[in-house]
């Protein structure tokens, strides 16, 4: 079966934050958009994330900042606590969507995906699960895509939004290395203690821990384990191991530790980063989100870049006569901002591992301020 559906047709690979945002932003400008997502419907794991100001600003353009704030927990301050349990620093993040709304929001990932997916559905985007791309060829002004189910598409635009290990990036021969930084990060859902009204980060002698509220009743614990090999632990070892790692922290972490003993959805993931130097596009195809630039989670801003990419891509395609020119403009508008964030997140991860937390805090603060600049 072969389909060609006209000049403003887009196939997006990946229904993550970048893919769903790009899909809605394009569809709102009159594009006919289809998404191929390899995972099954509702497969998102239940851990939380923190959406900083630039994410909220980009979501606000799609009319989604308020639904996200309603589904999550709005906050404006990051509190840093040192190895002895003393408060050392408070970062007040810029309120990018107005003084009356919070600077950031903590959310459960499924709640964010639900919000983005409902918007895509409202915009008429078709989402196919269990589907991916097998081959890509530029044919004149169109991209010819062979799908994993044997069907063919001819579209004006192909967007690879398929994450750090992007297959589309590989099919377009836009190669980049994925780096591991000697850190494994933990996330665990726990009840929210009443004092947790912002992000708290605790520096330990070896590791870093913290707490982020994601609703009135729930929060997630995070822990960064330093200087370890990349590995996978059996599920039944996760809670006891996290509990043991949290025992090394004084003060409030002891309370968090007792909550972690009954945690749901405990995950442990490697800190991986990637940055695609040079072009992110070839012909009428482009990669966006983590497929082009994946920062370490220390700046809590990978989602911001992914969501912004979707919005900026649609804007640039709108104001250029050809897809190629629109994609060139998109890449040149995004490169420096994304490079700065990826490089800063790696520098913070390195300082964290070297226990040089006091040098990391101003870097975090300065980078958040830089990210607050217009996109
Ligand atoms: C532990 C951890 C904590 C984090 N915390 C934060 C945080 O608090 N705040 C923040 O802003 N960022 C955070 N990030 C980063 C953030 O999660 C990413 O930057 C963001 O998810 C990138 O979105 P994306 O859509 O580009 O990629 P992804 O979220 O990876 O989505 C890619 C999508 O493509 C699909 N896919 C993959 N391969 C294929 C294929 N071949 N064909 C079709 N579909 C495919 C996947 O199933 C997925 O749905 C964190 C990252 C990690 C690892």
UniProtKB/TrEMBL annotation:
Q: Quote the InterPro entries the UniProt record gives.
A: FAD-bd, FAD-dep_Monooxygenase_BioMet, FAD/NAD-bd_sf
Q: Note whether Protein transport occurs among the keywords.
A: no
Q: Which residues form a coiled coil?
A: none
State one molecular function term (GO): monooxygenase activity
The lineage's top-level taxon is: Bacteria
Entry keyword annotation includes Aminoacyl-tRNA synthetase: no
The FAD-binding domain covers 10-344
| Keywords of this entry | Monooxygenase, Oxidoreductase
| Protein name as catalogued | FAD-dependent monooxygenase
